[in-house]
Amino acid sequence: MKNYYIIDFDSTFTQVEALDELARISLKDHPDREEIYQKIEDYTNLAMEGKISFRESLTGRVQLLNANKSHLNKLVSHLKKKVSLSFGRNKEFFKKNEDTAWIVSGGFKEFITPVVTPYHIKKENIYANTFKFDDEGNIIGYDDSNPLSDEGGKVKLLRALNIDGRIFGIGDGYSDFQLKESGLIEKFFAFTENISRQSVTEKADHITPSFDEFLYVNDLPRAISYPKNRILCLIIGDVPEIAVHILKRDGFSVRTKETFEEKYVKDVGMLLVADGVKILDEQLERADKLKTIGYLGDVKGNVSKEICTEKGIVVFDDKKNKKRNSEFIPRRMADFINNGDTYMSRNFPNLTLPRLMQAHRLLHIHQNVPGIMAQINNVYAENDINIISQFLMTKGDIGYAVTDIHAAYDKNLLKQLKQIDNTIKFRILYK
Asked: One biological process GO term for this chain (predicted)?
């Protein structure tokens, strides 16, 4: 049986609710605009939480818009810049699944189609409402015969389509959950990258903070090997808000604490630490998932570089206390996680890598002893791997080997690379 992917548009494929954004464009010069914006937003939220019918919400919002075709053109330009980050980086998934990845939305084709078709989503696989216009191009209503304009519209549509296959639903609202409730879909994934509604998440089969997470749990082609929302990033101490924002926006699971609490030691993947905070040696020794530390001050005397190096933890710090480093340090951390860059690290060879293009990047951190590269390349040779590019740098006792390879390979290759003598840490990236 084929798998079909039914994806919502507003606050799922895009970061925003399109009708709310259209109101902000069309009512920009209206004297009562703030009051009308709030009414439209209230209609949206009440329907998404299942507190009023979808048709009641839709009618109320459209009547308040005072919009025309020129406003729609501006909206489309705006929405193209507001595609959810995790959807934006997974274009390749839609290309490979162009027959079974569908947009099903209570929004409107007039703005949905031009936003999603550049992502290889076929026009015939976009199911949404349509506006009615007068002779001057003003929006005067919508086609109320379309099932998607009615309460339970997505359920009615899927029943009519009678799809022969396993259907997965992805969305943020009550109308998306109704598909699960109806029994028409295999699983419902509550999408929370942009907004989380408790009335929806508590009923979902799986909460997916990003599209990467959905692809990961279903073992589907994806832009990154491991969802960043699964990487716990702890912010310790008084760290500037801009630094926190950068890491949150990149999709990491960020928590802010005054101290490095014991309960996080074994699970933390990234640490961003305020100046003056000391990380204990015994905590570092047990932080087996920790990949990188950013220190907003001089790391000397506060974090053991020796232990970090032994455990393959890449350290970035702010030795000269420059103001811009509250942005620079978290970006360096993110670049290491995302691309393998170690530029400006205090304890690793400094390497800036080219962006990955349709390949898998394997990072092998090892003790700097003779013969490691020979062992690594023997593994590639024995597995008939086509190497696209390879980089090696050393610093003191540490060796950092980066190899880009084509995506087709037996997963046993990864096990073999991890088992090479003197391996400290091994990671896989793909973008």
From this structure: L-serine biosynthetic process
From residue 336, alpha-carbon distances to 85, 118, 245, 329 in Å are: 19, 29, 17, 11
Rounded distance, CA 157 to CA 155, Å? 5
Ramachandran sector of residue 251 (left: φ over 0; alpha: ψ -120 to 50; beta: rest): left
Tell me: the pLDDT tens digits for 377-389?
999 999 999 999 9
Indicate the domain borders of the chain: 3-217, 247-339, 360-430
Domains 3-217 and 247-339 share a fold: yes
| C-alpha torsion 58→60→63→64, nearest 10 | -110
Using CA atoms, how far apart are residues 283 and 261, in angstroms rounded to an integer?
A: 10
Written out in words, the top-level CATH class of the domain with range 360-430 is alpha beta
> How far is Cα 273 from Cα 180, in angstroms, rounded to an integer?
43
What whole-number distance in Å separates Cα of residue 1 and Cα of residue 98? 16
- Give the Å distances, CA to CA, from 102 to 5, 7, 13, 89, 128: 6, 6, 11, 17, 11
**Which of 40-54, 209-223, 280-294 bottoms out in mean pLDDT, i.e. has the lowest?**
40-54
The predicted structure's pLDDT at residue 63:
92
Identity of the residue numbered 10: D
Structure token pair of residue 172: 């943020």
CATH topology of domain 247-339: Rossmann fold (3.40.50)
Q: What is the pTM of this model?
A: 0.88
Which 3-state string (H, E, C) describes 335-369? HHHHHCCCCCCCCCCCCCCCCCCCCEEEEEEEECC
CATH 2.60.40.10 is the classification of domain 3-217:
no
The predicted model gives 69-90 an average pLDDT of: 97
Burial label for 424, CB within 10 Å (0-12, 13-18, 19+), is middle
* C-alpha pair distances (Å), 356 with each of 67, 93, 214, 318, 359: 43, 16, 22, 28, 6
